[in-house]
Amino acid sequence: MDSLNDTDLALMKFGVGQPVPRTEDPTLLRGEGRYTDDINLPGQAYAVMVRSKIAHGRIKGIDTKAALAMPGVLMVLTHADLEAAGFGPLKCPVSIPQRDGSPMKTPPRPSLAKDKVRFVGEAVACVVAETQAQAKDAAEAVELDLEELPAVTTPTQALEPGAPPLHDEAPGNLVLDFHYGDAEAVKKAFAEAAHVTRLEIVSNRVIVNAMEPRSAIGSWDAAKERYVLHVGCQGVFGLRGGLAKDVLNVPADRLHVLTGNVGGSFGMKAPPYPEYGPLLLAGKSLGRPVKWTDERSESFLSDHHGRDHQRVAELALDKDGKFLAVRLTGYGNAGAFIYPPLPATTNAVKNVIDVYKTPAMEVNSKVVFTNTTPIAAYRGAGRPEGNYFMERLIDTAAREMGIDRIELRRRNHIAAYAMPYKAPSGMNYDSGDFAAILDKAVAVSEWNGFEQRKADSRKRGKLRGRGIGSYLEVTAPAGKEYGGIRFEADGTVTMLSGTLDYGQGHASPFAQVLSEKLGIPFERFRLLQGDSDQLKAGGGTGGSRSAIVGSEAFLEAGAKVIEQGKAIAAHVLEASAADIEFARGRFTIAGTDRGIGLLELAGKIRSGLKLPNDVPQTLDVSHISDTPPSAFPNGCHVAEVEIDPDTGQVDVVRYFMVNDFGTVINPMLVEGQAHGGVVQGIGQAIFERTVYDDQGQPLTGSYMDYALPRASDVPFFTVESHPVPCKTNTLGVKGCGEAGCAGALPSVMNAIVDALAEVGVTHIDMPVTPEKLWRVLNGR
Fold it and tell me: Ribonucleoprotein as a keyword (predicted)?
């Protein structure tokens, strides 16, 4: 056996599959991260938004005279100013066909309210002053003359005859009447079923609460005659395209978007927001940068919310418990303006089948405008909900039919030998071993020792329950992604990607992939993502796609580096390119020990190596990848809860998960993603309650009213891996960012209902707050 060289040893430590620490962590832990609010540009002014204090009203006038007369005030912008400058409204970039094939309703959203306000917190004016305090004072002096109109906050209210209309373009407040599936086949399956389980079930509205509030700085680069926007987002390339096209009405290259560190997003910071247009107009008009940073109270109102679905979920089974069909019928709350309504529609379709053979399916969704903060993507964007609906149906069916819930799942699993499997959702599952994962989860959770633990809880006056949450989620679909590799003068190698790290930790895993591919030391790599000038494509980060698409783009780019390097090395080594081999970071002439290292070759090129015209002139690569199709991460989570019947308090006391993320590039980072997703799932299940009153006023507008889980509210997690590599991308990775939520919602809620079953409760909706549970237990 050949002895291991330094390259081999480095790959054993830093290659794919190794738990390499995140390279950005030392900087972030020292407080040296550079978030948008940390940026202060010379001569910058400050903006504050004037927001509506009512949920629905007609704008009769906006009086800015008093504000303009206040010290330090530079300007006050309204919709009329944006319109005069040629700025357009925000638009929904996706249109999903209605049941009848017609397009869904997509009324535009003005950056500053035009004729009406439609939710509490909608921006009506933008005040710019020398200091933030002066802008705040002046914003309070702007007088809004609003004729208050009746408000609706739920889809059922909004669809009632005579309900107040939000948009003229959407009669009856209906955005989209969506249908998917074979209605006749589903109807037949339910008619012939030996048993039908039916649940009215809610996926509650959540407020995203990223650690870093939104912030942006708008300016005008007079030399290059273009706008510049510093902003926290999920992908600078896509944000630039949408903002330039719809709002600024300029070619994409007339807008430069820059993003530094981003303190969380979970889908919320992905799209353009109304504040960005006024900032850019103010920056151009004043000839100086204009900075705006949300306060947390504003974030509660103006950041997009997540979830908010009401469903009737139904499962048809034969006498042996085999699934015949699943049907979802219900509503998705769009809020006051429409963003791609994927969670309530297509993502529900893709994910409700879960890991089970289900011959027929149907999804009926009415997406509806209401006088509430708009709903957009939130970690999973319909994927966790689909799995949650199915897993709650299965536990309920098992109880109703007297079948063990594990056995019922086993009877209906899609078998590993059945792969590839074409689901009625239209998805083609390429890989998976669902039965083995369930068995492993049962074993690691010590399922068979539960009765003793339950008895111990009973002695302490507590109810105890356990729940299973199997899941399969469909990652984002194929598209375009950028993979650039640039050899720098200082000997480092820059990786350029159209994905964007907002907490996931991209730098280490991408470096691991390329270190293994090119044999370059891990520590030489640097990652560049947040500069739209440096990118030629980019889908951003979302839908658990970054490891899949980013790695694929870099592997393809790495192959081009090797191809170009062989031609250049052939010239340097005075050999035929056909005789050049590459391995372990070194080009060699086949059958000899003559060669040159990749980094040494890069150094020669930088030093002025003269190359023939028919030989590549650089090792640098700028590559746009056609990304792989969706992958199917899956797994099984097991939760145990204790309930105090005297107070209604729910505690998650044990938590186990077995996940199939395919090839795991960095297990340390993957476990961190799983932990975060599970905590957010626990938050939605138990803590996070968003409430509006009858006038559309939010009653949960601060952390005094809106509860988030803390470290003390969750147990230690046991994380096991059962990887079945995906067959549709080179590395076999499946994605992991949203899986924690997908497993947590059903496992925790099934555990709660299991605990309550002994007192006769068979269903309860999220969030299971102490007040709600106490009322259920006490018949109030």
Answer: no
